[in-house]
Amino acid sequence: MGRIRLVGLAVVALLVAGTAPAAASWVVKGRGFGHGVGMSQYGAYGFAEHGRSYREILDHYFRGTRIGSVGDSNVRVLVGGGDHISFSDATRACGEKLKESKDYRFERSGGGVALASGGGSRLASCGDSGGARGGSTVSYTGRGHLRGELLAVASGAGLNAVNKLGIDEYAKGVVPNEVPSSWPRDALQAQAVVARSYALSTTVDGDGFDLYDDTRSQVYDGKDSETGATNRAVKSTAAEVVKDGGKTATTFYFSTSGGETENVEFAFPGAEPSSYLKGVRDPYDDASPYHRWKETFSRGELEDRLGGHVEGRLQDIDVIKTGVSPRIVKARIDGSAGKRTISGTTLQIELGLRSSWAKFTHR
């Protein structure tokens, strides 16, 4: 599921609600950035700065779990698509030997996939899907170098471009896109372990793929995004995952906790309680610029954003239920013509807030 990440925070911040103070009559004071479940990335950074190991960090956020290992495991990540998929640096595809220096492409052929030269000359039929491999990477035109195999999977009238690769290779393309590579080693190692665990414990059941390459799953950007520091973090924790009993744990994570994380059942409507996805104190999260935040609105802006949740003119927003942290589980929207309840998640989304840990005051 989609989560808010560290990479691109400056861009995301531009999308967060806020107006000139002169026009505002409502003030929203809050904490944190993201859903609040599992590992706070800034909290992990703070723990590492205070000398905690990555194992201690993971034990803090995922209570009652252990670090285990997985065997050879592959993931399939959607990295693009279209009516054709162009690539180079490949040595084999669809049973054919290729020249690394030449360009090739996958195309639709009836209900399946065909291999063609860069100019479009048909070379081979691939069946329902085609796969291209190189020496160490394949270059997907417009996307860059990908470890493992580039697959073309027939989907609708076009093709899905899917990167199939080993779990450690995948983690190398995730960690530098989820946290800064300049962070302490143990914070990077913790991120590597949760990235593997999350990938192997979730699936989007896509057309030929298990994961998206963005915040709907995890941000993955291939070999060209890798760094030395993050690759060392992946290598030093090779094949390690968080285990809950005999199963790989679903290791949710997010940017900033504001000082406390949250139980999964309060953050995600309809989610079942989990023994290891419980709210915990997060003492070192204050390194984040979003540990505390404030936004201002006019009443008209709130009414526009809340739309049908407001009956008449907006009069108040009252928090009526929180989780184990101060995050809003349920709020009441008081209007001049009636009252309505709203979930904290919906309130956060409608208002564009960084998290559901929010307090509303107005004048």
**What do the pLDDT scores average to?**
93
Per the principal axes of the C-alpha atoms, what is the gross shape? globular
Class by alpha and beta content: alpha+beta
- Kindly state the percentage of residues in helix: 10-25%
Number of helices: 9
Q: What is the number of E strands?
A: 24
- Strand residue percentage: 25-35%
Quote the distance from N terminus to C terminus.
Answer: 37 Å
Low-confidence stretches: 1-22
Rg, Å, rounded:
23 Å
Strand order of the main beta sheet, please?
7-6-11-14-15-4-16
Major β-sheet annotation:
7 strands, mixed
Tags for this model:
23% helix; seven-stranded mixed β-sheet; six-stranded antiparallel β-sheet; alpha+beta; 34% strand; single chain; 363 residues
